[in-house]
Specification:
The complex is a heterodimer of chains A (661) and B (286).
Chain A (H helix, E strand, L loop, with lengths): L5 E12 L4 E11 L3 E5 L6 H8 L7 E10 L2 E3 L2 H7 L4 E4 L3 H4 L6 H11 L1 H4 L5 H11 L6 H4 L8 H13 L5 E5 L7 H18 L2 E6 L2 H7 L2 E6 L2 E7 H6 L4 H9 L37 H5 L5 E4 L2 E3 L20 H4 L9 H7 L3 H4 L32 E14 L2 E14 L3 E5 L6 H9 L6 E6 L2 E2 L9 H6 E4 L3 H4 L6 H13 L3 H14 L16 H13 L5 E5 L7 H18 L2 E6 L2 H7 L2 E6 L2 E7 H6 L4 H9 L3 H9 L9
Chain B lengths: L1 H5 L7 H7 L1 H23 L30 H7 L1 H29 L3 H13 L3 H12 L3 H28 L2 H8 L4 H9 L4 H24 L11 H7 L9 H32 L3
Classes of the chains: A alpha/beta (661), B mainly alpha (286).
């Protein structure tokens, strides 16, 4: 602990509910100038509460806060000192810039607001316009007046977040708190923002507290990491050490469940769910989920003890925490290195997959760029494609185009997309938001009739609308949606939700459907008593399992999973991915897995299609695409995607890390 | 957080839901009392509701605790007799309002295509006429019978419900569970009934009290203009208007029926709010 250079010292922070139950307890943080401290933990662990308590900001229902906060030598102990510190000593970059910016304030006005709030420090009024423009420039936004006169809704998500960062930097505070600033942004945007933050840190020497649930992101940016669980810091230390050799079993669980596209390995899910505020046990809060607990863990709370230089762990048994075995580096097989133009692949598979045809003529994509039309740029499926499942195509999409009509204008969401999904195989559709992934999923499910092209199920063409499909056709395709909170009807019990498709599509009577509910709940690893519950009584991961059970109730041969894990915590994500893998093995369901996360792709899919602006720009065997990407866009995606192994590589071996950002 | 807040009690039958809530209990008791007064009132009233007993506008006296009205009739007796028409006409109008509003709103919100703009523009046309004018038009054309009053009030007031239902429906339609129902080939009526309707109950019930009171007020206004229920019928709405001239000599002649109407509206609102509140607490509603 470098007490001398620290700009932020927080001691024994405690925030409790009106009932007296602590949300966070005994949280102490220290930040030196130029430090980036990553505060990680799953939802409900107290990260945001900790951040807000630094500002003396309490959410509704929070009764009392205690602890000492010192920033740049100033003690923040009264309401007034906290208020004067906000923006000047400490500033906040929120998670959701879209809702955090005042929609009625233009960009420059929003920044000037912050300047005028601390008028004494920011100089005379006349200089504020120029100062605000300078800030825009500093965060990589155009500093001209035209941009400054825009409203937040006229900006992209990344631009909105930059404006939020500019506001946070306006008064040149020594400490900036960033609360999940890139969650919800695309990987390319996220990568740019992270690079921007590192640059700003270097330029200004500001200390940053970076809150996130994503270990890979924090590994990319932070020098130190503090891990929170159930309102307490359980491990704290140098970033590389924490990520490569975690000592607390919870940290280890987080690392083991974080997917990595460069070193894919089987993800390990943590058993159980996080304890709620007020239900925390007397001893270690993690003990009920911990594989190395002893009797002592259940009665006595371990201290946050230093185990080596600046590495603190709150665990009695930290010595027995097993290491996380890194997966082998992803490498393309020799086949992948063959000239893609050589027609080496089986003709039938290729013809269906569309080969290079879709991109060959060079098509205008959504953002106005031209995709290079060179056929050599486009990867075709290699012979190894037959590894995926039994090789027989259960689903074939041929030259699918889909569009939206909104207020006169036509928006093309997918253009000439072709691919096949083998029986029992798993194909991943990867792309950023707006790339058309979800539209393709909806078209296959019969929710969005394609503008042209065909969808074949076992060689039989599917009508565009679900209503026009036969019961058998509908039975054979299941879909699971992105948001588990909205996927289930809150007014129906779990049993009713699962029984419905079984009765409607398989004609089961109520007794048989009930038996099917029990069987499916067991298949998705949920206890039978869940059947009587309503979705509101379940956690996000449980709801997603119910949604999967509902999709399986019709006995589908194709399961479309549309970003099914993106709303879940990593440990829950690992459990859901594991479940999908088991279902494939046991039921030989073919899965079309839609995601933006390359790490998840590496963990689940044999084949991957990279979508950009509605066009497939690369497709092939996962290892080949991730290991030796041909298309420039795929390479950019790969380079921008954060990876744990890259962050920890320098720790493992002395070679410099792969070029990242 | 989710784990802690997600634990909710299982579903309870709705009457228990309402009476479990303090406001709901008060509302239920009030509502039962008012309905009792309206139904049994005519049986226990001390005088005939139409007999002239003395000086118009006379204050409270021995045989008439609430005094006499603008024609010298007993206010208490008229109060006891005047609840039936209010409850019946207001209740019937509200029922028709919701039937029409739900049918149109659900169809428009579900269709999201041709039917939506057509239905909603038709609804807007109705909304663009002043309510009272439409009421009067109907009453002048078809007479002031109870059926016409109910029908006209419903015609004027259903567009608001249709709009609420449509907005709530379009929001629910984007949810995954509706898409899942479409994808498994459920028919439109089944989707509306099973997936949409249970999830739009909250805004509908929240609006119920206001809509009910508007129906009563509209019908009362027509009665006041002498085009609806004919004097000497006793009706709380009618009493408020017809006794306005004697408000200085016997304010109770206006205040008593006004208080009854107010209590009725408050009771309906309390019950509705309690239902919405308790339902969201028990079922995980948004």
């Amino acid at each position: 602990m470098r007490l001398d250079g620290s700009v932020l010292t927080a001691r024994e922070l405690r925030v409790e509910l009106a009932s007296g139950a602590a949300i966070i307890e005994g949280v102490s943080l220290e930040l030196a100038a130029g430090d980036i401290l990553g505060l990680v933990g799953e939802s409900g662990s107290g990260k945001t509460t900790t951040a807000r308590s630094l500002f003396g900001y309490a959410d509704r229902g929070v009764s009392r806060q205690s602890g000492q906060i010192t920033v740049a030598g100033e003690q923040l102990d009264t309401a007034d000192s906290l208020r004067r510190a906000r923006g000047r000593l400490l500033s906040y970059v929120p998670q959701n810039p879209g809702t955090s910016l005042n929609p009625s304030l233009r960009v420059l006005a929003a920044i000037e607001d912050m300047l005028s709030a601390h008028a004494a420090e920011s100089g005379p009024r006349s200089g504020r316009g120029a100062a605000a423009a300078g800030l825009l420039d500093r965060v990589g936004l155009p500093a001209d007046g035209q941009f400054g006169r825009r409203f937040p809704h006229q900006l992209s998500g990344g631009q909105q977040q930059r404006v939020c960062i500019a506001i946070a930097l306006a008064c040149d505070p020594p400490v900036v708190v960033l609360d999940e600033p890139t969650t919800g942004l695309d990987v390319l945007t996220q990568d740019r923002i992270l690079a921007e933050l590192v640059r700003l840190r270097d330029e200004r020497g500001a200390a940053m507290l970076y809150i996130t649930h994503d270990l890979a992101v924090v590994g990319q940016i932070a020098s130190r990491i503090a891990v929170m669980y159930a309102g307490r810091i359980v491990e704290q230390g140098p970033a590389r050490q924490i990520l490569s050799a975690p000592r607390h079993p919870y940290t280890r669980g987080l690392v083991a469940s974080t997917p990595d596209h460069l070193r894919p390995r089987v993800l390990e899910a943590m058993p159980g769910i996080a304890v709620g505020v007020g239900d925390r046990p007397a001893g270690c809060a993690f003990a009920p989920r911990c594989g190395q607990r002893t009797d002592r863990c259940e009665t006595e709370l371990p201290e946050l003890a230093e185990i080596s230089g600046r590495h603190l762990v709150r665990c009695f048994e930290w010595r027995s925490t097993p290491a996380v075995a890194p997966g082998p580096p992803i490498t393309a097989s020799p086949v992948a290195r063959a000239d893609p133009a050589t027609p080496a692949a089986p003709a039938a598979d290729l013809a269906m997959a569309g080969g290079t045809a879709p991109v060959a003529d060079g098509v205008l994509v959504a953002d106005g760029n031209l995709v290079a039309g060179a056929g050599a740029d486009v990867r075709v499926a290699g012979p190894a494609a037959s590894e995926a499942g039994s090789g027989q195509a259960i689903l074939a999409v041929e030259h699918l185009s889909a569009e939206y009509r909104g207020r006169g204008a036509r928006h093309v969401a997918a253009r000439d997309v072709s691919f096949t999904l083998a029986e029992g195989g798993c194909v991943a559709l990867v792309g950023e938001s707006g790339s058309g992934k979800t539209t393709i999923a909806r078209s296959i499910a019969g929710l969005h009739p394609p503008a042209s092209g065909r969808i074949l199920l076992a060689g039989q063409e599917l009508p565009g609308r679900a209503q026009r499909r036969t019961t058998q056709q509908r039975r054979r395709v299941g879909i699971v949606f992105q948001n588990p909170a909205e996927a289930l009807n809150p007014r129906h019990t779990v049993a009713a939700a699962i029984a419905r498709p079984a009765r409607l599509l398989r004609g089961l009577d109520s007794g048989a459907a009930q038996a099917e509910v029990d069987r499916l709940l067991d298949a998705v690893r949920l206890p039978a008593r869940v059947a009587r519950r309503y979705p509101g009584e379940l956690s996000g991961g449980e709801r997603q399992r119910v949604a999967i059970a509902r999709a399986l109730a019709s006995g589908p041969e194709v399961l479309i999973c549309d970003e099914v894990t993106s709303a879940l915590d990593v440990s829950v994500q690992a459990a859901v991915l594991e479940l999908l893998r088991e279902l494939r093995r046991e039921l030989s369901v073919a899965i079309l897995f839609i995601t933006h996360d390359l790490g998840v792709v590496a963990a689940v899919a044999e084949r991957v299609l990279v979508l950009r602006g509605g066009i497939i720009c690369e497709q092939g065997i996962t290892a080949q695409v991730l290991g030796a990407a041909q298309h420039e866009y795929t390479r950019r995606l790969l380079a921008a995607a954060p990876s744990l192994s890259v962050s920890t590589q320098a720790w493992h071996d002395p070679e410099p890390a792969a070029p990242l950002a | 957080m989710t784990a802690a807040t997600a634990r909710r009690r299982p579903a309870v039958p709705w009457p228990a839901l309402i009476t479990r809530d303090r406001g709901g209990l008060v509302g239920t008791v009030l509502l039962v009392l008012i309905v009792l007064v309206a139904l049994a009132g005519p049986l226990v009233m001390p005088h005939s509701s139409t007999a002239v007993l003395g000086t118009p506008g006379h204050g409270p006296a021995g045989g008439a605790p609430l005094g006499l009205d603008f024609l010298g009739r007993d206010v208490l007796s008229r109060l006891l007799a005047g609840g039936r028409s209010v409850l019946l006409l207001g209740g019937a109008a509200t029922l028709v309002i919701y039937l029409a509003g739900l049918a149109i709103g659900l169809t428009a919100g579900y269709a999201q295509s041709f039917a939506d703009p057509v239905l909603m523009r038709a609804v807007d046309v109705i909304l663009s006429f002043p309510a009272l004018l439409v009421m009067l038009l109907f009453v002048t054309a078809f007479g002031g019978g109870p059926g016409v009053l109910v029908g006209a009030a419903a015609l004027v007031l259903f567009p608001g419900v249709a709009r609420i239902v449509r907005t709530a429906t379009t929001e629910v339609m984007t949810k995954g569970f509706v898409e899942a129902a479409v994808a498994r080939g459920e028919r439109a009526p089944a989707i509306m009934r099973r997936e949409v309707l249970p999830n739009i109950v909250a805004p509908i019930v929240a609006d119920l009290g206001i809509r009910f009171s508007w129906a009563i007020i509209l019908i009362a206004s027509v009665n006041y203009l002498g085009l609806g229920l004919r004097p000497p019928t006793a009706d709380w709405g009618l009493m408020i208007s017809e006794n306005r001239e004697i408000i200085s000599t016997n304010p109770l002649a206006v205040l008593a029926p006004a208080a009854m109407l107010a209590l009725l509206v408050i009771a309906v609102n309390l019950v509705g709010d309690a239902y919405v509140r308790q339902r969201s607490r028990s079922g995980g509603d948004q």
